[in-house]
């Protein structure tokens, strides 16, 4: 594995990753609907093209390319122009065809990667692969095979995965997928004092140290921005955190202008 | 005095002859029209008839023969991939240019009226 960094361009996240993802790796981003998984992935692709002249590919399953162009435009990213300049390809196919295409020699994806000299890929989302496997072991095998296909093409990948839990305890985290990925980032909704916040945690970054704090993040007009860590609360990733003893004490006994956090 | 049917035909034939031929010989049904538009918007899609039917919101039993005919006519490519029959837009640059011209011509209402006239005639 190379040690070169592939910056995501996401303010705060690159700092957490100590410069970015490692090159030629598969990076899993998991979260509930609306947490910004696809936005994070598109930002990774946009940053590659705009800041590093690294072409990108978006592999989408059952999400029309037009949706990506539209969503990207909302952040000021001109994906149509990138396509026209041969810096981007958005490919929509079913997971079974994508998988078969990756496995064959000189498949269409491989051809397009070579054609535009792509270095980055967004796979949106891995959840669709679940219908190809009848057991967790088979799913792991299928995804492992697919990820190796991406690495063979020397791509650095962001792979999104949907998580149905909006708040509360996470349903069974698919450990098999976390094992095959080189990094694992979790996006969560968090309810604090009747307001919903968004939290980001890098659970794993194989081959490198990283920031283990749980951080606030926002989806702004320019994409994701990762802010400071959560202070004064515990159980953030449960979705319904409680105050730490110190915060609870402060809330109960100190005037509000003396409270921290 | 000319036959009214002949008059209508001559008026409706008033378009780029390449596009007229494309409509009369290859995009000669509304389902094919939809499929061509789909592949024009998604030029990198390779998929099965089942998936393409889902993407276009149609029944696979209706879509599959039309995909096969478009492949025979050179608009699409058809191949076998791991036991699946998959379709993609033809790589031929002349064909792609022609389809591009057709889709852009469809932005014009008058052209669309003429194209619909010819498709209906083909369906008779």
Describe the 3D structure.
By secondary structure, chain A is an alpha/beta fold. Chain A has helices at residues 13-16, 37-52, 65-74, 79-84, 95-103, 108-116, 136-152, 175-180, 245-253; strands at 5-6, 21-22, 26-31, 55-60, 88-92, 118-124, 156-162, 183-192, 195-205, 215-220, 223-229, 233-234, 242-243. Chain A has two domains: 5-230, Rossmann fold (3-Layer(aba) Sandwich); 231-261, no CATH class. A nine-stranded mixed β-sheet of chain A has the order 5-4-6-7-3-8-9-10-11. A two-stranded antiparallel sheet of chain A has the order 1-2. In chain A, strands 12-13 form a two-stranded antiparallel sheet. In chain A, strand 8 (183-192) and strand 9 form a beta hairpin. The model of chain A has no long low-confidence stretch (mean pLDDT 88). Chain B has helices spanning 4-12, 17-25, 30-41, 49-56, 60-72, 93-105, 109-123; strands at 46-48, 76-81, 84-89. Chain B has a three-stranded antiparallel β-sheet. In chain B, strand 2 (76-81) and strand 3 (84-89) form a beta hairpin. The interface between A and B is medium-sized, with 18 and 16 residues.
What is the compact description of this entry?
Chain A is α/β, with parallel strands linked by helices. Chain A has helices spanning 13-16, 37-52, 65-74, 79-84, 95-103, 108-116, 136-152, 175-180, 245-253, and strands spanning 5-6, 21-22, 26-31, 55-60, 88-92, 118-124, 156-162, 183-192, 195-205, 215-220, 223-229, 233-234, 242-243. Helix content of chain A is 33%, strand content 28%.
Relevant terms:
heterodimer; A: 261 residues; alpha/beta; Rossmann fold; 2 domains; two-stranded antiparallel sheet; 13 strands; 33% helix; globular; B: 124 residues; alpha+beta; Arc Repressor Mutant, subunit A; 3 strands
């Amino acid at each position: 594995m190379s040690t070169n960094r592939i910056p995501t361009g996401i303010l705060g996240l690159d700092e957490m990753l100590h410069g970015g993802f490692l090159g030629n790796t598969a990076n899993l981003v998991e979260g509930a609907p609306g947490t910004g998984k696809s936005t994070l992935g598109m930002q990774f692709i946009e940053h590659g093209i705009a800041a590093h002249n690294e072409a990108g590919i978006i592999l989408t399953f059952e999400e029309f390319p037009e949706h990506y162009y539209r969503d990207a435009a909302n952040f000021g990213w001109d994906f149509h122009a990138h396509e026209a300049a041969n810096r981007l390809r958005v490919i929509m196919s079913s997971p079974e065809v994508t998988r078969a295409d990756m496995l064959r020699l000189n498949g269409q994806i491989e051809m397009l990667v070579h054609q535009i000299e792509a270095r980055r890929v967004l796979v949106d989302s891995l959840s669709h692969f679940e219908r190809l496997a009848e057991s967790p072991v088979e799913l792991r095998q299928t995804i492992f095979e697919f990820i190796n296909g991406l690495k063979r093409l020397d791509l650095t990948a962001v792979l999104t995965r949907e998580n149905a839990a909006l708040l509360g305890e996470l349903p069974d985290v698919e450990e098999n997928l976390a094992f095959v990925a080189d990094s694992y980032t979790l996006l969560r909704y968090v309810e604090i004092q009747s307001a919903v916040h968004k939290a980001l945690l890098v659970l794993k970054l194989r081959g490198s140290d990283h920031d283990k704090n749980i951080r606030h993040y926002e989806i702004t007009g320019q994409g994701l921005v990762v802010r400071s860590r959560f202070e004064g609360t515990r159980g953030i990733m449960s979705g319904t955190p409680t105050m730490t003893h110190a915060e609870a004490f402060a809330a109960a006994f100190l005037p509000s202008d003396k409270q921290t956090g | 005095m000319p036959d009214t049917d002949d008059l209508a035909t001559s008026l409706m034939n008033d378009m780029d002859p390449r596009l007229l031929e494309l409509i009369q010989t290859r995009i000669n049904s509304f389902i094919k029209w939809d499929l061509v538009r789909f592949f024009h918007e998604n030029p990198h899609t390779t998929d099965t008839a089942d998936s393409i039917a889902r993407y276009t919101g149609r029944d696979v039993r209706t879509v599959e023969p039309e995909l096969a005919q478009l492949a025979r006519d050179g608009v699409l490519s058809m191949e076998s991939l791991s036991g699946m029959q998959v379709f993609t837009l033809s790589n031929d640059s002349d064909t792609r240019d022609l389809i591009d011209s057709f889709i852009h011509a469809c932005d014009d209402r008058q052209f669309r009226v003429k194209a619909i006239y010819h498709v209906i005639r083909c369906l008779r």
